[in-house]
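Workshop exercise sheet. Pairs work together: one partner reads the sequence aloud, the other fills in the structure field after running the prediction. Swap roles for the next sheet.
Pair: D.N. / O.F.
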Amino acid sequence: MNTRSRKIAALVIAAALGWAASFGLDFAVAKNVVADGPGKTAQGDKSQQTGDKSQQTGDWSQWGGSSARNNVPVASNIPTEWEIGDFDYETGEWDDSNAQNIKWVAKLGSQSYGNAVVSDGRIFIGTNNSGGHLKRYPSNVDLGCLLCFDLESGRFLWQHSSEKLPSGRVHDWPLQGICSASYVEGDRLWFVTSRGEVRCVDTAGFYDDENDGPFTDEESIIKEKGQEYNLKEEADIVWVFDMMKELGISQHNMCSCSVTAAGDVLFVNTSNGVDVEHNYIPAPEAPSFFAMDKKTGKVLWTDNSPGLNILHGQWSSPTYAEIDGQAQVIFGGGDGWVYSFDPAGDGEGNAKLLWRFDANPKESKWELMGKGTRNNIIATPVIYDNVVYVAVGQDPEHGEGVGHLWCIDPTKSGDVSPELAYNSDDPDQVIPHKRVQAVVPEEGDFARPNPNSAVIWHYEGHDKDGDGKLGFDETMHRSCGTVAIKDDVLYIADFSGLFHCLNAKTGEFNWNFDMLSAAWGSPLIVDDKVFIGDEDGEIAVFKHSADPTEAMKREDPDDEESELVPYFGQPYMGATVYSTPIVAHGVLYISSQSHLFAIQAEEN
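Structure field:
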């Protein structure tokens, strides 16, 4: 089957699977189902950052695997080919007779954007309620859901259910579910709900026969419904922090942040944004970023730097590292700036800014519905070898547009942007940042290079044909995704479907590939292979190499002029893949729009 035929088939299957999930057709199947209760696997290791191939990465307990967010686990014998099997669209049942290298499949909802995380024999993932896992919430009830499955079998264990806000789509968009990834440590899990809450839950649920939330009696809630339900299928909630109530935020469309932590401190982006008409900022004084005690939910410090300059929403996730002896928590702002703070704050409940970086050209302009050239930041910053990598982008609903990828030196302080803005009335005085356009030449504004710039390199595309301009396939477009880096080779996908490979140290262009479909997610590098999903449900699999002739192969091996295609091919998942592939304990996990697949090489 050629690429175009596979794409058509994928779209047909995606539509059918989405229809089946929307009606709650049930299946939860594995080739080997275990007894009740979660299976146990070895605790996670620390080999991700060392690159030590002698030790396999175990648990994958947060987005990116660590607070540095570089999706580069260690494993071997990861499959590059698989067949997902067949589905009965009347019953939803999985038929594994034609499946290849599929360990198990678990049903999600009809829309799934968040990434899976793995810890202590369980796998956790956000979705909506179209899967209908709980009897008290049928599939036609719209919820944001965090699902927990047994890692060995894929059996459903429990669900956290977030009812939709009555204010509707301005704050909690229909059918979108939980779009962020969780953070897990020990027997506690923290995540951000779509309705503007940070929640801490017990990873064991009620399987440990204990209620860990003194103020949350799930059993009494269930009894009030007047029916018998299985308490063990419910989440055991430890504490809840309502950001709308406690911080006065007004998230745009939903809250989505994959939190991270350092010690007992949890870091959160609030998603504070514009109003329903996109005309003003309802809560400019409310925090955009904050730190809290992960054990108690107590707020430690807050920061509202983007203020009235928020462009749309703020859905990026924080990154943490200690660099040259200075701990830093780094946030992508809804104003298109990158901010770094001292995780300890100033000791008085406020943030302590280390540096800030405008990731857009000063003359770029924000226009509604993505028509302009100024972008906010949705991607998560990544730290590799003590430098920061981040791309700009917009809500995918705004469509395609020009983007930028930056490599930033995080050891500087203050305003470390590439340029500073001035006005001819006082050409030696830096002017304040302006939301729509930082430098308006018609008003006498101009930009100068910043002597304190932290730019190591900047990538906006590569003129492959040397004609002096960037064509579509030469441009770095808007991106929702993060970079992944190994051996100084960097990969990133943009929303226009181009997959870029660069030198991480210099920004030098190595190669790119047009996936012919939008990419929302980020790459996975493992086992000297690179995986990236797309909106057509395909997973392009390349050899990990800066050389395009090694990373890819000729579509027709006998024709030296034929197109280069991914070396290992493009297996498909049957439905759109918005998420990022992960690996834990030697198993590849990929979530499509409607299902979570555990992919493992079958024994001969």
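Discussion prompt: The longest helix spans residues 3-22. What would you look at next?
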